[in-house]
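Dear colleague,

Thank you for sharing your sequence with our group. We've completed the structure prediction you requested, and as agreed, I am returning the results in plain text so they can be pasted directly into your records. Please verify that the sequence below matches your submission; if there's any discrepancy, let me know and we will rerun it promptly.
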Amino acid sequence: MTTTPHTPLVVHPRAAEHAAWVFYATAALGSTIGQVWVGLSAPPWPPQLAWWWRVLLVTPFAVVIDLGGVVCAAFADTRQRLGEAAYGWRILSGGSVATGVGINIVGHATTPYLAVVFGGLGIFAYTVWLLHTAARRRDALRAQGKLADTPPAYGPTQWWREPTLTRRARTLARAGGYDPHESLHLAREQLRAEQRHTALARHVDTLIRSRHDNPVLAAIAATTVDLDAIAAQLTAHSDVTGWARLIGANLRPPPPPATNPVATAGDPLTATEPTPPATPAPPIPAPPPRIPTRPDTHDRWRAVWLDMLDHPDLTTRQVAARHHISPRQAQRVRRVGAAGHLNAPNPTTTRQPHPATSGPHSPAERA
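Please find the predicted structure tokens below.
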């Protein structure tokens, strides 16, 4: 399965941003009106001072309180885009908004409806501002490559069934931009390979330790050798085709038992005596490997076999390519050489005798 990272789509929610600005302006205006309302009656104004003078005097301070929270939050957002925490600006912003909300709640304490409306508008407006600026900051950092892309959603069912696999797929999707199906496929392959690799490395460690009688030397040898590299080399050079052929040959079904024709009732001519159950035939021995008897063929095979001994890390296909022969012929050379028939410089003239069989020309009758 070929996986190709997808280019993340850039979404510009212009309508949502415009709606957020309109909502924030309306909510901030309501919070300011609530503070001005409190300022008309709470301070000890002189009786001769007209109400509109009070509005003109209180409005700038109410606007500064709400606007101060926004300005400090904007400075904090700018510093956070540069990688700073900006705790000071964030504390000032929260304190300014808390002051405005407190004025609305305490000033309208006698009227719970006004206290909830004006105080809630201030809290809601500030929360929308923080969420909006945080989203824009993440988009800017993601466009600069300083923030990873958002991973795809896998659903609660997938998380409940395979939490480890889904966690690995989520990491792969975030790093490579894969879709959910591709990331799950890659994660499943990686986890399966890691399990096989870990088990193989554990067996290699056991084998290395078994070669030393001294436990200290065995521990040194097992620690010095790169078990992961050995496991990777063994996996790369494993003869998967040969093992599959061998296992498939052992999985062949047995021949069906011989059955006699069913005797017809009342007809002695068609009735036959039951035959005893047939005993299973002994396994057929594997034929001996074909040994080259011609000197030129023996020399070529011996050269290939010596190359295999000098380069044990080469696979059968690589050896075949080096000597311009087929992989099947290279496998024959490997079997004949492993049997010891290519060690001598001259060809072996004797062949392995076939097992004697009973018949008119059996050794017993010839004797």
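Summary note from our side: Residues 14-143 form one domain.

Kind regards,
the structure core
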